[in-house]
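User: I'm putting together notes for a lab meeting next week and I want to include a structural view of one of the chains we've been expressing. I don't have a solved structure, so I'd like a prediction I can at least talk through. The sequence is below, exactly as it appears in our construct file.
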Amino acid sequence: MGFSPILPDNDINDRPRQDAQHVLRRLRMGMIAPLAVVATLLAGCSVGPDYAAPEIGLSPAWGFAGSDATATAAPELSEWWRSLGDSTLDALIEEAVAGSWDVETAKARVREARAAFRQAGGALLPSISASGSVDRSRNGLSSSRLGDRTREASTRVQGGFDASWELDLFGANQRGVEAAGYGMEAAEEALRAALVTLIGDVATNYTSARGYQARIALAERTVASQRETAALTRAKFEAGTVSALDVANATAQVSSTEANLASLRTGYAEALHRLGVLLGREPSALAARLVADAPIPVPHSATPMGVPADVLLSRPDIRQAERELAQATARIGQAEAARYPSISLAGSISTSGSNFGDLARSSSISWSFGPSVSIPIFNGGSLAAAVDVAAAQRDQSYVAFQSAVLTALEEVENAAVGLAQARERRDRLEEAVAAYREAVRLARSLYQIGSSSFLDVLDAERSLYSAEDSLIQTQVDITTNYVALNKALGGGWSGEVDASRPLIVDAYSGPRLR
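Assistant: Thanks for the context. Below is the predicted structure for the 514-residue chain, given as structure tokens.
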């Protein structure tokens, strides 16, 4: 629009131009005022509490004064299992991440949370819909000529658009988007937590399986040695140098060890089957792959633990609990906003004619536009109760967060104690095994020359087997506590995990004939 100078009022010929400018100014003011009001409404306000992350006071150091707990360096949690030096375990963990159904469930929940976030965001935007109709009717009887009565038929075609937009005056929809965003972040942390748990379970069950293999091999060697002793005792009995009691004791010891061998094989099968399921396969899928014995993976270095505050950043389950607390806080504002008035803008435009071609030319056009206000006056206290419900749920989330922190600290402390004590126990058992081996050698030598009873041989062999079996179990305990410590510190998968791809892809879900 061009610029027009203001002319003197006494110029009669220019009075129409001045009147036009006056009208334009009034129109501008009439447009600016509603726009200002709309802008103010769009800016809106928020009700309910704004979220602030809770502050937690933690000790500067771990409570257990063991060798592993005194390390202050930040923990190295990226692919921690590779420090065990077992390529089979590395491959199993990669396969588990790719095939675990627990991980797939967590991925689906991430997709669900992301879709819910997009759905909540749609409430902030206008909604537009189109409609159309065609009516064919007869208006009754008419006479075109005297004595000629006919029926007249008419067609009416109508089309239009409807639009509505709820002004988020008190932030109800914005709080909904905020809550959905926190929920999406919580689901992503839950996926990471599932990976931490999965990797720890695979490493633990693999270590257990290798431990059972070592214990089975020890039991088989012990049974073979005890059978030789029983055969020697039987030969002495036939020669008349020993009693039938020695033969019975030797035979009973063989049977006892064989019975223990059966329980060990059961334990190995259970660990093997659990590994197969963790990888998303049949329980016996790994039987042929792990049939060859391999050493128990054992860590050879201390694990830096950092400080307790590091756990808050590294544990995905704590981050998940914190995001869920934020989500619960946002839902209080969403429930509180429902107690305030809501304002919506609605409009429609429609056109009608006698046929489709008339909709664009000679048709009647009607439109409507205006705001609507909804004010809750009496609802029996249900809206206030909804706020109380949301506040109570926020308190539960706060308790869950605090509990998650304490549980994490407990798991770290327990794993550190267990690892340090298992290493100490291993050192003592190694000394005991060496001493019992010498005792077995001496007892057999003295028994063969008749300077010792057969009970001394039985006691020495039984003690040696028990010590060797305990040593193997302690080696398993060392690795199990090492796994538990890294799991408690939050160590997990550092690679990419694609949660966007659905498991089931529908070929076609659009309109089709039934």
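A couple of points you could mention at the meeting. The beta strands are 127-145, 148-167, 342-353, 364-374. The first strand starts at residue 127 and ends at 145.

User: Perfect, that's what I needed.
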